[in-house]
User: What shape does this take?
Amino acid sequence: MKEPKPMPKETITTRAHDYNQWYLDIVREADLAEVAEVVRGCIVFKATGYAIWEMMQRELDNRIKTTGHENIYFPLLIPKSFIMKEAEHVDGFAPEVAEVTRAGGEELAEPYVIRPTSETIIGYFYSKWVRSYRDLPLLYNQWCNVMRWEMRTRPFLRTAEFLWQEGHTAHVDEAEAEAETLRILFDVYADFAEQVMAMPVIRGLKTEKEKFPGALRSYCIEAMMQDGRALQSGTSHNLGQNFARAFDITFTDQHNTIQHCWTTSWGVSTRLIGALIMTHSDDEGLVLPPRLAPIQVVLVPIYKNEDERARVMEAVERLTADWQGRLRFKVDDRDNFTPGYKFNEWELKGVPIRVEVGPKDVEKGSVAVARRDMPGKAGKQFVPQAGLTDYLLTLLEAIQVALFERALAFRSDRTATVTTYDELKAQIERGFALAYWDGTTEEEKRIQDETRATIRCIPLDQPEAPGICVYTGRPTSRQVIFARAY
RNA sequence: CGGGGCGUGGCUCAGCCCGGUAGAGCACCGCGUUUGGGACGCGGGGGUCGUGGGUUCAAAUCCCUCCGCCCCGACCA
Assistant: This one.
């Protein structure tokens, strides 16, 4: 059989031509979301996009529960005065909070803000719940929506309203809070990103300039998108005693002395959907890793007439008999579209595997199997009907691994160590620049002004040998990653 | 919020400069022929031209307001 080259999708701008437009084209064509033009900066999560979020939620929620946390839910509205209580926090969020000033037909005595994050209202309640060291730790998480009035928005990556989970914990001392912060970073976020999203991430510490307003330390996972830019994909904060002081979260310890708790907070959001798109997808459309794909296998029956249709559908019934519960699949039996149209449509929507069953397959006892991560002839082959289910399950795993490996290789290729400022400027055009750093926050800002790149993080994996700071020339043992960021 | 671009059937856009009965392709509906990489023929439906105001005998077209989207900056999960 002659295999034509994958046809370029005329509805999708190529990545090389315009990466931003490509991203928007994918979101629209794969039917993930729609810009809600009647509500500034907001999107409608369409069925496929929301299904991906549900898959993410399931995997994350499992990890959050297995690390000992319980789900809980706090109000959407927060008294405005709460937000004002932690100095750094106010400065960080004041410009982007939306306020409710009227309700019930009259002005409210105290306005509410629509939560941009819930540290403050949770802090208020934690202070009521904690009396003794025996009440600690508090290990809670909430799934909710939040609102931040961002100036510029993009579907999934930055929207005025977004969905996320925010974990909030309280502990007896710094060591326990720090252990919690890191455990979430490694065992929940990094593990999820790499094992489920097939997206390699760098585990790191934020600089003072980049940390969460009000935090003692912020940790993050950073991923590289296909244009070489960095995307912060999750954050985990050790809040120290800052919020405990602001909200008077205190406990009596073993020695009968009153102490402030140490709290943490951590979150990942629907931004991960944007990360997923920009990590794996190509000019043909969305590419979904099997573990997150709402549909893992789509089966397209092919026939010319009623007789063929009957024979083909009989084979389809037989082949899919034991798929239920083992594969997430769909049989595309719509008769108002041609097979070629369906191939393109499912490719666009990122389904990892397509199985084609036609009259010739019925005769020969075969099926055609095409894998999405390898468009065109390279990814399509004929396999025997016998043992098909196991074959598909194995192939799904292979695709999952291949996507991770490909993304990892891409990142490695676009990451380089730089020793001079000129090298740094050149490297951030391509991707991540690893550099020794001993500068101040002021110097960090100056570099941002000059290059539009920021320090994404101080990787937790640090080199053995010390080096020379790329900017100040001072000797240091600390290496950081510079990159342009989303 | 600053600079730039753009809002016309569901989508992509033409028409605007030079005011005079709103168009094309795709999509959609019906019928028939088709179906292994985006099928074809014939027939058909669908638009207060983003919003509000102004100029004019007459506004998609000219002027102003507001809203929204896209790109580039400053802010951010």
